[in-house]
Specification:
By secondary structure, the chain is mainly alpha-helical. The chain has a single domain, classed as Orthogonal Bundle (Helix Hairpins). The protein has five helices and no strands. The termini are far apart.
């Protein structure tokens, strides 16, 4: 399973119950991304402090090293002139500088290690935000498709319902037309209608004339 698939599954598992309670699940994802971005901002501030401390300890360590070298030079110079007492004092200072250097070296290494861990976590968080944005875009597209499909289905259902109503109307109209035709047959023949029939041309008789 790829990283993107894993992050989708994690997000689904963590937000499934929450999404059921909100009208727009995309808003929930937007809120989650906003929270993650805020966490990233705060983490970067903390990381900046740690990195600043790394640089500070590096400078202090170099200062201690310079002192060691300086006292080393002074010891040699004092011995060269036969002043062992002065050389001894310089040696004491050098030993103190060595202790300070080792202490700072340990602190610097620890701080640098913590900084590397923080940078790795920052990279992971940035990756999670990117993947969550990608999932949000995918989920938004799916949601839009689902909503569009729902609207189409609702329209089709309404059309189907309208067809049933049209069928009912068609039956009612046909019934009225049949009734009207029946009433037409029952209508009494007027005197004018009878004379109109006398004036009608007998097509069969006319056709016989052409045959003779």
């Amino acid at each position: 399973m790829g990283t993107f698939s894993k992050i989708k599954n994690i997000l689904k598992a963590k937000t499934n119950n929450a999404l059921d309670k909100v009208e727009n699940p995309i808003e929930s994802l937007e809120q989650k991304i906003g929270n993650m971005e805020e966490d990233l901002h705060n983490a970067k501030l903390s990381a900046a402090e740690v990195l600043g401390n790394v640089h500070f300890l590096e400078e202090k360590k170099q200062d201690a090293r310079s002192q060691m070298e300086d006292y080393e030079t002074k010891i040699k110079k004092a011995l060269s002139i036969g002043n062992e007492e002065l050389a001894k004092k310089a040696l004491e200072k050098k030993i103190e500088a060595e202790k300070q250097y080792k202490h700072l070296e340990s602190k610097h290494a620890e701080s640098k290690k913590n900084a590397e861990k923080l940078k790795s976590r920052l990279a992971d968080l940035e990756k999670s935000i990117s993947e969550t944005r990608q999932y949000r875009d995918e989920a938004n597209a799916r949601l839009n498709t689902a909503e569009a499909s729902q609207k189409v289905n609702e329209i089709l259902c309404n059309v189907s319902s309208d067809n049933i109503n049209l069928d009912d109307i068609e039956r009612k109209i046909s019934k009225k037309e049949t009734t009207a035709a029946g009433l037409e047959d029952l209508k009494p023949v007027s005197l004018d209608d009878e004379f109109d029939k006398l004036n009608e041309v007998d097509l069969d008789a006319e056709l016989e004339k052409y045959k003779s």
